[in-house]
Structures are given as C-alpha cells and as structure tokens.
Design a protein that fits this description.
Blueprint lengths: L1 E7 L5 H16 L5 E7 L11 H9 L16 H4 L2 E4 L2 H11 L7 E3 L13 H4 L2 H18 L4
Parallel strand pairs: 1-2, 1-3, 3-4
Amino acid sequence: MIKIMFVCHGNICRSTMAEFVLKYMVEKLGIENEFYIASSATSTEEIGNPPHRGTVARLRRAGVSVREHRAVRLRREDYGKYDFIIGMDRWNIKNINVITGGDPEGKVRLLLDFTENARDVADPWYTGDFDATYDDVTAGCKGLLKFLGKI
C-alpha cells in the first residue's frame, strides 16, 4: 500500500483538495485499495474545521466526492507512517521538515514537482481562485500517479 500525506498551511483548502482529488482518481482507476491518502496542516489555526466552502464548491463542480473531513495537524510520527509527504508550497516544505525533524529518507516533496511546471500551488485562501488551485492540484496528482507507474 502506498501511503500519501498531503500538507498545506491550514488543511482546509489545498491539501484537502489534493486528498479528495487523488482519492477520486484512484477510485476511477479501480486501484483505491493500493493507496492510503490523507491530508494535514502545518499550523494549528484551522484544526477541527471543515474544508473551505470554496474547496467544497470547486470539487463538487468537478464531480469529486467531498467526504467528512476536519483539519488536523501533521505530527512528527507521521514521517514514519507515510511513503510521501507532499507539500503545496515551499513554505509548507520548510514547516514539514521542522515538524518531522527533517527528511532523511527523501519522502518530502512539492506537489508540482511531479509535473513539468514545478512551482508552488497558490493558496486560494489568499487568491480566491479555487479554479487555478484545482487545476494545479489535478495536474500534480496526475503527475504523481505517472511517477508511481499507475497511469
């Protein structure tokens, strides 16, 4: 089983979107039993909150199931539990490494590093552009599945 943790600042926009998008993609491929997919935050600001309404609206427009979710914070012990810990931006990567105590096994990656256009996924909390975030997340998840040899 491939265990993937998506991480952003608050776990209500980007990482939650990536979690649901990748779950949707692997279900469509019929390989959902090969994956354990979760998401978390580097901060404590949104802990316990549901996904942002903009995230929910954009996922529903795309036909992606929005499941029960409450924001949680990444924990040091998560490093040992996951094969990939994927941040949405470089600031997330810095904070992931602080929380986990570093990345000796090379598990920490930037989502869009799995695409031809490696860069940060903009935070729609600030930009208000959930469509652009969805496009980036979808491209990153497809790139990840290609990297894993699943498509």
